[in-house]
Amino acid sequence: MSVFVLRRLLTLLATLIGASLIIFLVLDALPGNAAQMLMGADASPDAVRALTVKLGLDQPLTIRYLQWIKGLLSGDLGNSYVYGTPVAGLIAERLVLTIPLAIMSMLITVVLALSAGIYTAANHNKLGDVGVMSLTQVGLALPNFWFAILLILLFSVRLQWLSAGGFAGWDDGIWPGIKSLLLPAISLAVVQAAILARVTRSAVLEVLREDFVRTARAKGLGKREVLWSHVLRNAMIPVMTVMGLQFANLLAGTIVIENVFYLPGLGRLIFQSIANRDLIVVRNCVMLLAAMVVIVNFVVDVLYAFIDPRIKVHDL
Amino acid sequence: MSDPASAPLIAVDNLGVRLNTSRGPAQAVRGVSFALKRGETMGLVGESGCGKSVTALSLMGLLPDSAVVSGSIRLEGRELVGLSDAGYCKLRGNRISMIFQEPMTALNPMHAIGPQVAEPLRRHKNYSAAQARKEAIALLDRVGLPDAARRVDAYPHQFSGGQRQRITIAMALACEPDLLIADEPTTALDVTIQGQILDLIADLVEERGMSMILISHDLGVIAENVQRMMVMYGGTVVESGPTNEVFRRMGHPYTQGLFRARPRLGAREGTRLRTISGTVPELADLPAGCTFSDRCPLVEDRCRAALPPMVEVGPGHNVRCLRTDVSMADHVGALSA
């Protein structure tokens, strides 16, 4: 076990270093000078040069890279070119929204998808299976922003249960915050749940065809018992892989839904920073996202080993 | 039961199984009848697709939901055809157990072997976890798994094929069933292991007074391990009788063909293996009369008219053939296939 985790950790570290290099080089290779962009096209060359020195952009590439890494490790990400405030603070402000939103949305996804996937697999080719699978087909085809607007029409405009947008924050307790994230979380979850339900169904069906399922039935276990005690754990490997990808996507790719609900999330911060050429914010946000994706994958890998005893031995 | 020694443990009468295959509905088994007394052993022989596994699975109630079973299966007089799945669950692994062909895939790779062997005990005998574990170790020890007490928490992938088959045997025997069905238990194993596993099964059957149905395509395995045998072809029984009787005077051209097709030690180099010409018919389109008629060297027009009846050719020895006068007229070897 420990060897397995250690090897995975080393891979994680190497991936992060690679990602940081690529992010740094790509953003550095972008045409245009950040100082020039900030001061506008009419600024005097002297003023632009002064700002360049002030931002440290005149330093050689390797020095700037190392300074950035040093900052990352010490938690000092520098100041935003545009707002002048620390980047770490800007990101933290957004994370208190983005992370709870991702977790809520993932929970809804998992509950919907596992129940639908297991139900349909257990009732393979029966009416319930066909019905639920048609629903997931609809879920796959729905653009989530359009579904979000329908939700707003129903729950905010018609029923007036929930607000149509904005984020209440966590200052007044946990409930107002959760309430304001509920509709966005559902909108994000619907499409994901449709995908995950299909993955779950086919994974369970595949395991149901395995010989050991017949062995378990031959021991006198009922169909339901076999499903819970023998099939699900075996079916979880592909399901968890997709879950990991979906969670990473929820952390980074929610900008459309953030815009529909006026949520100040990480996606909007990145979008605005790109528009403003606030490259120091962009660079750190992208690094953060890369790190989260890598860490989610690491967690999924370790979970594999917990679920499947064969993985520990082979040290994948 | 007033006289458990003579009353049949299991009595199968005119069993028929209709399956939905990709090529349409097929009568996988028809008109299969036999009775097995407590402690009696019977072999089921035939090529792949002849209906022997389907027969076994219908005894276990493990056919797919779409299968239609007709006829009667009685366990100590109690009718099993039409029994609910919940009712069958009380019998499976408890009174009737089954060992499958593929030990490599028959065990759940995610669970340690101990709990898998203990599962029938927990379920049928309400053993506590500790009791069941103790019993599982004893069972694993009995089936010859080395170091059972230590390896009870190991996972299936840590065992060899032969060891895994021992584990599935332990599992099948956990609740001391009355009837053991062994479906090609050694086909997937190395030849050297095959003998050990068959000996183990024979010992356990003897020791516990179980009845056994041994399914195999290997006549040698059948000859050495069972008292009676049934030869199946195209979903019907073509020959049945006491094993030594059948081997002494094979009546059905198919049985004779199977016998000649077996590989032999000491044959001259370059001697070709005898085969039965033609291929096994699809169950979806069996010939109208005798199922073997398309491949039979002795076929006549009347063979194709209707399924021939069983003819008694010796004490308890029956053959489903119209031409036993020819097929049994002379020594088996004299026939030209």
TrEMBL record, chain A:
MF term (GO), any: dipeptide transmembrane transporter activity
Transmembrane feature ranges: 95-119, 140-161, 237-261, 281-307
Gene Ontology cellular-component terms listed: plasma membrane
Keywords: Cell membrane, Membrane, Transmembrane, Transmembrane helix, Transport
Membrane protein topology class: Multi-pass membrane protein
Pfam families tied to this protein: BPD_transp_1, BPD_transp_1_N
Recorded coiled-coil stretches: none
Compartment(s) where it occurs, according to its Swiss-Prot or TrEMBL record: Cell membrane
CDD domains documented for this protein: TM_PBP2
Coarse class of the protein's main subcellular location: membrane
ABC transmembrane type-1 domain location: 95-304
Superkingdom to which the source organism belongs: Bacteria
Family as reported in the entry's similarity comment: Belongs to the binding-protein-dependent transport system permease family.
Protein's name according to its UniProt entry: ABC transporter permease
From TrEMBL, chain B:
Membrane topology, from the record: Peripheral membrane protein
A molecular function GO annotation: ATP binding
SMART domains: AAA
Gene Ontology process terms (BP): peptide transport; transmembrane transport
Chain ranges of the ABC transporter domain: 10-259
PROSITE patterns: ABC_TRANSPORTER_1, ABC_TRANSPORTER_2
Sorted UniProt keywords: ATP-binding, Cell membrane, Membrane, Nucleotide-binding, Transport
Function description: Involved in beta-(1-->2)glucan export. Transmembrane domains (TMD) form a pore in the inner membrane and the ATP-binding domain (NBD) is responsible for energy generation.
Protein name in the entry: ABC transporter
Organism: Bradyrhizobium centrolobii
Organism phylogeny: Bacteria, Pseudomonadati, Pseudomonadota, Alphaproteobacteria, Hyphomicrobiales
